[in-house]
Amino acid sequence: MLITPLPGADRGSIQHVLAQVRLTALALRGPAAGTGFSRLLKYLQWATSTADMLRSKISAKDIDRLVLTPRYQSLLHSCGTLAGTEQQGLVNGLVDLEVSERVQELEAAAAALEKKTAHWNGREWYVVADSSFYIQNPERLADADLHQVLHPPRMSTSACFSRSPWSTSWTV
Predict the structure, then answer these.
(1) What DSSP assignment string belongs to 141-153?
(2) Each residue of 108-144: pLDDT tens digit?
(3) Tens-digit pLDDT profile for residues 81-115
(4) What are the residues facing 165 on neighbouring strands?
(5) Distance of CA 5 to the CA centre of its chain
(6) How many Å apart are CA 21 and CA 154, to the nearest integer?
(7) Are 56 and 108 in contact (CB under 8 A)?
(8) Alpha helix (H) ranges present in the chain?
C-alpha cells in the first residue's frame, strides 16, 4: 500500500513515525496488554494518538485506511456496551485481530514508502536533445544508446538510463 505524503512532509519523519506506531501497536497484543475492556481502551487510545501523529504527514484517506478502519469505528461506537465480563473473549479477539491487521498494514506502508524512496534517490541527468544531436546522430532519440552518446560516469554495474514516460529526463 503506497501512502500519500502531505506537501512538505519529510519522508524520514514519516518512516520514523510508522515504525514507532507499529512498535506501540505490537505492545497491544497478547495477555501482557491486559484483558477485555482495558485492552479495548488502550487500543482506542493508540488509534487516536496514531491518527493525530500522522495527520500532519500523510493524507486523511491513508490514515483512515491504516488506523481509523471500519472495525475501529465499530469498536469505538460499541465501547460502552463491551465493558462486561461476558464480552471479554469477544473484545480480546476483536482487539487482537484489529491490532494484527494494523501492524501488517503499517509494515506494508513502510515497505512501499521505502521502495519508492529508494527509487527516487538515484542520480539524475536531465538531457535535452538540441539540433546538433539530430544532425550528428543517425538514430532517432528514442532508439539511441545514450550510454554511447553521453558517456556517463561509471556508478555501478546496475546503473542504466531509464526514460520517464511523462518527461524528457533520463535517470541514471
Answers:
(1) GGG--HHHHH-PP
(2) 999 998 888 877 666 666 777 788 888 888 888 788 8
(3) 877 777 788 888 899 999 999 999 999 999 998 88
(4) none
(5) 8
(6) 41
(7) no
(8) 11-26, 36-54, 60-66, 70-77, 88-119, 131-136, 146-150
